[in-house]
């Protein structure tokens, strides 16, 4: 018996995700699949287009057996923190044999080699990297150029692609914690991660979110399984989506203008707080604020994540306080997943949360989990109907039989 782990957002779940699940099972021969899934806010610095329970339902219908929530503080952080939190959570289950992720490269060997190198950077490489950072470009771009220069080869097609970058971070995390989980990668098919182009049956989540926001729902069935489309439409019909960063414009602007200590927010460096504060007094929506702040050094995604940290009240020192998630929150399961859950309970040392009302009895440190609860309460402010708080307490984890 073997168990496969995947790290996902499914924002929204589309045909490319279905291909990845099926190909991963075929490659590993896995009998069970566990997904670590971001909650109501995701790594690119935006809210999920529909809520985490709806996306959990889609995941279970797609062949996932058990869905576990990635704590919000990791879900909205840098690629490095996102990957570390998710891998650490998977490893803590003590049942996972494989982790599979999509990549533009589709080969694990080169990704593994780069990952090991980046974990133990030699001094001469660090000198090259610093020389490019001084030119005012992003860390990711400086690293990409420095690696190409160091190895004497152009490896932009590896370290310059978003899924490869995440894959490298997953492998780095596995090595760092000395995990026995074996990494596997599946070559991504169809358009790129941020592409607005489409293939015969594949489209990026970026493209699909744009389609959903523009209410052109007739296109979706070509690129998403029917059940995923139906779940999406159900949320929209209830007035519970699509949720976008625009829904939080006034809250974010208020917080920035009202003496929020932006300098204490994670990833705010080198006077960036002054630029952000100035933008908040010039504009009252996130897109214009981001447009004013972004430079060669400060990317849109980095600024969006900073704004989410402000919105969610996540302190800058949070990532030094914890060595990965300190609980296992179950969002949903099928019949096989319930069997898996029993296995995990017998093997893990981490507390498992299936009933949120019990969390204070289960957790000695509640800070991280309470950020998940707060994130949901803020997320529902975007609902046109029923913007109630406390959904984490009233929503039971989903079981599909």
From TrEMBL:
What is catalysed by this protein? Answer: cytidine(34) in elongator tRNA(Met) + acetate + ATP = N(4)-acetylcytidine(34) in elongator tRNA(Met) + AMP + diphosphate
MF GO annotations: ATP binding; ligase activity, forming carbon-nitrogen bonds; tRNA binding
* Protein location: Cytoplasm
- Which Pfam families has this protein been placed in? HIGH_NTase1
- Keywords assigned by UniProt, alphabetized: ATP-binding, Cytoplasm, Ligase, Nucleotide-binding, RNA-binding, tRNA processing, tRNA-binding
| SUPFAM superfamilies reported for this sequence | Nucleotidylyl transferase
Residues at which ATP binds = 7-20, 102, 163, 188
Where's it mainly located?
cytoplasm
Q: Which GO terms describe its biological process?
A: tRNA modification
Where does the record place a coiled coil? none
Please describe what this protein does: Catalyzes the formation of N(4)-acetylcytidine (ac(4)C) at the wobble position of elongator tRNA(Met), using acetate and ATP as substrates. First activates an acetate ion to form acetyladenylate (Ac-AMP) and then transfers the acetyl group to tRNA to form ac(4)C34.
Q: Which family does it belong to?
A: Belongs to the TmcAL family.
Q: What name goes with this protein?
A: tRNA(Met) cytidine acetate ligase
Species in which this protein is naturally found? Thermoanaerobacterium thermosaccharolyticum (Clostridium thermosaccharolyticum)
Q: Which gene encodes it?
A: tmcAL
């Amino acid at each position: 018996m073997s168990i496969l782990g995947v790290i996902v957002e499914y924002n929204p779940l589309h045909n490319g995700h279905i291909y990845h699940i099926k190909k991963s099972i075929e490659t590993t021969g896995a009998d069970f699949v566990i997904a670590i899934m971001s909650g109501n806010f995701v790594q690119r610095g935006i809210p999920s287009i529909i809520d985490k329970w709806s996306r959990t339902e889609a995941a279970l219908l797609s062949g996932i057996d058990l869905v576990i929530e990635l704590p919000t503080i990791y879900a909205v952080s840098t690629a490095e923190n996102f990957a570390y939190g998710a891998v650490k959570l998977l490893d803590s289950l003590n049942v996972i044999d494989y982790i599979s992720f999509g990549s533009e490269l589709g080969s694990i060997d080169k990704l593994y080699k780069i990952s090991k190198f980046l974990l133990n950077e030699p001094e001469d490489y660090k000198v090259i990297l610093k020389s490019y950072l001084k030119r005012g470009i992003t860390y990711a771009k400086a690293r990409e150029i420095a690696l190409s220069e160091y190895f004497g080869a152009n490896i932009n097609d590896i370290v310059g692609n978003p899924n490869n970058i995440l894959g490298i971070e997953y492998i780095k995390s596995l090595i760092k914690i000395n995990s026995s989980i074996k990494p596997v990668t599946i070559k991504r098919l169809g358009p790129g991660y941020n592409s607005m182009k489409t293939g015969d049956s594949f489209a990026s989540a970026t493209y699909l979110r744009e389609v959903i926001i523009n209410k052109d729902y007739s296109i979706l069935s070509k690129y998403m399984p029917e059940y995923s489309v139906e779940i999406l439409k159900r949320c929209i019909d209830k007035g519970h989506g699509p949720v976008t960063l625009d829904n939080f414009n006034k809250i974010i602007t208020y917080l920035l203008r009202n003496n929020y200590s932006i300098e204490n927010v994670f990833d705010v460096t080198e006077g960036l707080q002054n630029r952000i504060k100035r933008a908040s007094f010039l504009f009252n929506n996130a897109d214009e604020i981001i447009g004013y702040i972004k430079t060669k050094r400060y990317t849109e995604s980095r600024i969006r994540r900073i704004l989410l940290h402000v919105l969610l009240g996540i302190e800058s020192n949070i990532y030094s306080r914890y060595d990965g998630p300190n609980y296992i929150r179950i969002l949903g399961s099928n019949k096989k997943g319930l069997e898996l859950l029993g296995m995990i309970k017998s093997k893990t040392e981490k507390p498992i949360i299936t009933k949120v009302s019990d969390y204070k009895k289960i957790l000695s440190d509640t800070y991280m989990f309470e950020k998940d609860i707060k994130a949901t309460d803020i997320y529902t402010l975007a609902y046109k109907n029923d913007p109630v708080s406390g959904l984490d307490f009233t929503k039971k984890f989903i079981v599909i039989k």
